[in-house]
Amino acid sequence: MIGIELTPEHPVSRIAELGERAESNGFDTVFSSCHYNNRDPFVALDRIARRTERVRIGPGIANPYEIHPVTLASRVASLDESSGGRAVYGIGPGDRSTLENLGFEHDRALRRVLESFKTAQKLFAGDRVDHDGTFEATDAGLNFGIESESIPVYVGAQGPHMIRMSAKHADGMLLNASHPKDVAWAAERVESGLSDRPAERGEFDFAAYASVSLASDEDAAREAARPPVAFIASGAAPPVLERHGIDGEAAAEIGSHISAGEFDAAFEGVTPGMIDAFCIAGTPETVADRIDGVMEHVDSFVAGSPLGPDLEEAIRLAGSVLRDRTDRS
After folding, report:
1. Percent of the chain with pLDDT over 90
2. Where are the alpha helices (DSSP H) in the chain?
3. Are 55 and 29 spatial neighbours (Cβ–Cβ below 8 Å)?
4. Domain 2-217+283-328 in CATH: superfamily?
């Protein structure tokens, strides 16, 4: 997979144009990120479907807290129908700091994600579902079928237990990591999960879902990386921060600013070390070298937000870099 994440912080008409541009630049999968304070990702994805012919599309990453898992499955199935069978189901525990704004407890995250996509798979297969676990459903079903033979499930993961669960149960994993150190660490947990994976589940796609910022000007690329790095750093687990020598109190302060809606202060708190740890930022040459280090450990790569200060140019540059790596593999 050569994937890209488009963030609907822009009008959905622009996201649709960018999705079309991504397809023409060699990307085969387009994800739309899911945050309540941006436009609705499923509206954006439907618009992308109308402007494209081949790319797979899906939420990246939907969480099963703010939307009931059965309703979320229905939305993904609807997207599969509207796109002619091109949906991908990206699901994960969500961003803790933004979920807190909505009053949701980030509890039993692994179990919630697993139960949610297992329930979705039953619904996609036409089954009716009774469930009593991290959520409840009684005789729930969809009154329509999915367009494709099956909808692949990709779990957004960062922690060791979610990574192992993904490798055992899902079709693929979108690892929230941009640094070779973090990806190498995750690869060991993937192998552990694959050792328990039943053969009938088929192959597993281990994808790096990496924040990328590309531009001909290195400083401009790094400056554009501040917003996504702020979110990533604020949600990073202490062992991840320690791995990169990042001050946990500084990361927590950024998270506090995000929860309070003080985004300028949050972005200003991002340090050069945080950008190095949580984003692949720089010129095409710099980015290509970093991507090579990541690709040593994964099967696929998704270029995530911010992409760069000039989105059209960043999509062109990222597509060229990734196509070159795919052609050589």
Report:
1. 87
2. 12-24, 41-51, 69-82, 96-101, 109-124, 160-169, 180-194, 218-224, 226-235, 238-243, 248-259, 263-268, 272-278, 284-295, 311-328
3. yes
4. Luciferase-like domain (3.20.20.30)
Q: How far apart are CA 40 and CA 35, in angstroms?
A: 8
Residue 29's H or E segment, with its range, is strand 29-32
d(CA 225, CA 267): 9
DSSP state of 322: H
Pairing assessment for the beta strands 129-132 and 136-140 based on DSSP bridges = antiparallel
pLDDT in tens, 19-67: 999 999 999 999 999 988 899 999 999 999 999 999 999 999 999 999 9
Q: Is the pLDDT of residue 323 over 90?
A: no
Extents of the domains making up the chain? 2-217+283-328, 226-278
Cis check: omega of the bond before 61, within 30 degrees of 0: yes
